[in-house]
Amino acid sequence: PLCDALNRRDDMFTTSSCSGRALLWIGHDIPAKRRHSKPMLRPFICHSASTVSSMLDVAQSFNVSDGSTVWLRFEPMILHMCCRDWHSAQSLVTAARTAGLKRSAVASAGPVLLRGASAAATGEIVARAWRVAVEGVERLEMPLAVDGRSVFPLHDEQSRTWLHGVVAGKFERNEAKVQR
Length: 180
Description:
This protein is of the alpha+beta class.
């Protein structure tokens, strides 16, 4: 609904988005988004609180006797927009911050929309779009197993219920900020 509403406007459009997600990582290292980091599997990704229990079932079923590390991560919503002008970009950032999405900013100058008549000779830019990034702040990253050894007791019902509540709460707070 948010992307649809923004895309109906004449002064901006989405370039990428995610409503927020929880995921499991498995590998032999800490998850990293680096070019030369070791590969990791992402065996479960969910985008709603209703699937958190299934994700925890999958995590509990892993056999990590090979010395693997299992991480649980929650990433908040993220939205990348291209705005027709500076005013639209600033208005979007202000609205996002007012809604509690504090990691919102004009990210960079976007594509050139219009060049002056003498642009071939002077390179004069008359109008430029602006890229805006809007990102939530609800995050979680924690190991469930390290070097093949459980470090979070998913088999313990009280601990599992607590973790389910934490992750489901992240989804709910994330969604509430998107709805504002």
